[in-house]
């Protein structure tokens, strides 16, 4: 059975709610979606930081956007299989397939 979103909404707290064609409902926090972005750059960064590497000697400099709570700023359909999600930190290259989104979402009871 092909899973497709049937309804999409945003809660006042910024969480996304997607209703799926199988009748399930999933909740997504913008911070989690940003952290698991499937784009090549984000996957590479996660791989690089998952290994044992020396700690940087200097603290990183953060942009103003990086100091604010992350928000989803837009979601554009990609064909009939995914969404391209843009975030408030300017990142917008992740393509989130419907199967991936369904898998990583939380049920409303767990959220």
Automatic annotation (TrEMBL):
<feature type="domain" description="Gamma-butyrobetaine hydroxylase-like N-terminal">
    <location>
        <begin position="11"/>
        <end position="102"/>
    </location>
</feature>
<dbReference type="GO" id="GO:0046872">
    <property type="term" value="F:metal ion binding"/>
</dbReference>
<dbReference type="InterPro" id="IPR038492">
    <property type="entry name" value="GBBH-like_N_sf"/>
</dbReference>
<dbReference type="Pfam" id="PF06155">
    <property type="entry name" value="GBBH-like_N"/>
</dbReference>
<keyword id="KW-0479">Metal-binding</keyword>
<protein>
    <recommendedName>
        <fullName>Gamma-butyrobetaine hydroxylase-like N-terminal domain-containing protein</fullName>
    </recommendedName>
</protein>
<dbReference type="InterPro" id="IPR010376">
    <property type="entry name" value="GBBH-like_N"/>
</dbReference>
<keyword id="KW-0408">Iron</keyword>
């Amino acid at each position: 059975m092909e899973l497709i979103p049937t309804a999409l909404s945003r809660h006042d707290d910024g969480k996304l709610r997607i209703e799926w064609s199988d009748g399930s409902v999933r909740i997504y926090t913008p911070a989690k979606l940003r952290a698991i972005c499937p784009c090549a750059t984000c996957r590479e960064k996660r791989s690089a930081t998952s290994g044992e590497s020396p700690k940087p000697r200097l603290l990183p400099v953060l942009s103003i956007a990086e100091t604010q709570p992350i928000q989803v700023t837009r979601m554009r359909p990609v064909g009939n299989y995914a969404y391209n999600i843009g975030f408030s930190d300017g990142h917008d290259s992740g393509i989130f397939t419907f199967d991936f989104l369904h898998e990583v979402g939380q049920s409303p009871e767990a959220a």
